[in-house]
Design goal:
It contains one helix and eight strands. The protein has 162 residues and is mainly beta. It has one domain. The chain has a four-stranded antiparallel sheet with strand order 1-6-7-8, with no helix packed on it. Strand 7 and strand 8 form a beta hairpin. It is flat, with a radius of gyration of 20 Å.
């Protein structure tokens, strides 16, 4: 703000007003239907099952995802950390006649991932656009080697709900 007599509250209010039209465009972009926080204890970070919509009682078949780690030999840049891991993501068939689908499987580790050590499922987000096929995004928390300990980054795998 140009006026030095304005308060922090005034600056926040002006930012909120200016951001209003942009924020409006993000409405109805989906719902987080399941989450596993990095700080939560006692969870299975490799499996998530959820109702795909925020409706009680549920009106849809549940959705389930499973994550499997794939060990790769360490590259020269990662050799000090032993093997590094890739992943396979499966969408599990939860109803009669629905088959399990492989959504992603690493055949090598992209250099952009640095030295990935482990993966966990973080969130499932679903979106039901009007008149279109519903879609999902599975967010995967990746732990990599950082400067002073592990770093966390997120990957997304998307697809259509059947």
């Amino acid at each position: 703000m140009e006026d030095e007599t304005k308060t922090v509250f005034d600056a926040r209010e002006e930012a909120r007003i200016l951001a209003g039209p942009v924020m409006k465009s993000f409405e109805n972009r989906g719902n987080v239907v399941a989450t596993n926080r990095a700080t939560e204890l006692g969870i299975d970070g490799k499996r998530m099952i959820a109702n795909p919509r925020l409706v009680v009682p549920p009106i849809d078949q549940s959705i389930e995802f499973r994550l499997e780690e794939i060990a790769f030999a360490g590259s020269e840049r990662c050799e000090a950390f032993g093997s590094t891991n890739g992943f396979r993501l499966l969408k599990i068939g939860t109803s009669d006649g629905e088959t399990t689908r492989k959504l992603h499987e690493d055949t090598s580790i992209p250099q952009s991932r640095n030295c990935p050590l482990r993966y966990d499922l973080a969130d499932i987000v679903t979106y039901y656009p009007e008149g279109q096929t519903p879609v999902f995004a599975v967010l995967i928390r990746m732990q990599t080697v950082g400067f002073e300990g592990p770093d966390g980054k997120y990957l997304a795998v998307t697809g259509q709900l059947d």
